[in-house]
Amino acid sequence: MTDLALENVSHRFGQLLAVDDATLSVAAGEVVCLVGPSGCGKTTLLRVAAGLEDCQQGRVLIGGEVMADERTSVPPEQRNVGLVFQDYALFPHMTVRANIAFGLQDMGGRQRDERIALALERTGMTSHAEAYPHQLSGGQQQRVALARAIAPRPRVVLLDEPFSGLDASLRHRVRDQAAQILRDSGIATLMVTHDPEEAMYLADRIAVMNRGRIRQSGSPDEIYLRPVDGFVAAFFGDVNRFDGKVENGGVDTPLGRIATNGTPAGTRVEVLVRPEALEIGEVADGFSGAVIAARFLGRSSLIDVRLADSAGTTVRVHMPGRLLPEKGAQVRVGRNDSQTFVFPRNDA
Ligand code: ATP
Fold first, then answer.
1. Which of 9, 10, 13 to mutate to test the pocket of ligand 1 (most atoms within 8 A of CB)?
2. How does DSSP assign 72-115, residue by residue?
3. Which residue in 88, 130, 171, 278 has a CA-CA distance of 20 to 30 Å to 165?
4. Using a 6 Å cutoff on CB, does residue 41 contact ligand 1?
5. How far, in Å, is the centroid of ligand 1 from the Cα of 38?
6. What digits encode the pLDDT tens for the residues 180-191?
């Protein structure tokens, strides 16, 4: 069952088309992450879903009912939506309990107390009910914001970069807990993040946005392993990029010939090879080059190699474990066919 549906939503600020024909749905209990570079329109799309911006074009449906289109606009507080936005900070002069109670004003005292107790318990904040926000850590404040959003039992929760103010270890913990709580509550969750790793980690589905358009939506696997274009491929990690022209079913690159599976001869293409498709070692049919930099990242190592071809192409290799050859060391770079993508060039 689709709980949140955005259909062909477009939004302009003056001349600027901030959201361009975006279609996206979120089912009950599903976590969808909306990712993309700064300024691509993520927050605007979320604000249209929440009712904080008009729906200038397209439709917003919640639980199958039209919340907004070019004519209708149900106010945000009547949309059955919980918001965890940075500009929806906790009220500083109210306790945690009072912050959560704020969204439950229509309810009788007993029911309200039960809802507050449950939201506190779910977010692990019961023992802090009487604290004021300034007495809590950043992670605890985020959990209260989540408790406040889920207490009215909304169908949909919209979160905008909810964990960006937290340091790395706290962020991991708080976001895991938050995603679990939202899934367990059967809420449809749409979360904006600019961090591709966070999206890969948390989402059931990812929607990748660029320049107002949703370029691809799918499971983290699909997005990473079968990106629809060069932008999506490069957004989810480093890539080695080469330009070329299709001849006889393949394209020549500094890392050898790559099959182009049906792309017509003469097409100008970009070839993207993820660094993990490359390896350094005793590779008989590899390409020789000299190490120009090597970095150990903990679980893996990154090595930049200048190939011995006439153009002096530099490639990046990502290998598991610790491998730190000396700068200048002569190595051979091998390539497997995984994680290699060929796309027609848009500008060609
Ligand atoms: P970020 O990750 O940096 O928050 P975003 O993907 O959320 O970016 P939006 O905040 O949706 O992007 O902004 C999309 C575009 O619309 C940007 O170019 C931004 O400058 C512009 N924009 C956003 N809000 C307004 C506004 N109220 N008035 C005019 N332009 C706006």
1. 13
2. -B--GGGS-EEEE-TTSPPPTTS-HHHHHHGGGTTS-HHHHHHH
3. 130
4. yes
5. 8
6. 989 999 999 999
Q: How many CB atoms lie within 10 A of CB 122?
A: 20
Q: Which residue ranges form the domains of the chain, and what is each CATH number? A: 2-234 (3.40.50.300), 238-344 (2.40.50.140)
DSSP 2-52: EEEEEEEEEEEETTEEEEEEEEEEEETT-EEEEE-STTSSHHHHHHHHHTS
Query: At what angle are helices 138-150 and 109-122 packed, to 10 degrees?
Result: 140
- With left for phi above 0 and alpha for psi between -120 and 50, is residue 153 left, alpha or beta? left
Other CB atoms within a 10 A radius of the CB of residue 243 amount to 12
Integer CA distances (angstroms), 270 to 128, 209, 233, 251, in order: 55, 20, 11, 9
d(CA 241, CA 47): 36
Q: Is 42 in the pocket of ligand 1 (CB under 6 A)?
A: yes
Q: How far apart are CA 17 and CA 97, in angstroms?
A: 41
Within 10 Å of residue 112's Cβ, how many Cβ atoms?
Answer: 17
The tens digit of pLDDT for each residue in 229-268 reads: 999 999 998 899 999 999 999 999 999 999 998 889 999 9
Chain length of the chain: 348
The pLDDT of residue 233 is 95
Burial of residue 121 (number of CB atoms within 10 Å: 0-12, 13-18, 19+): exposed
Residue 258: in which H helix or E strand, if any? strand 256-259
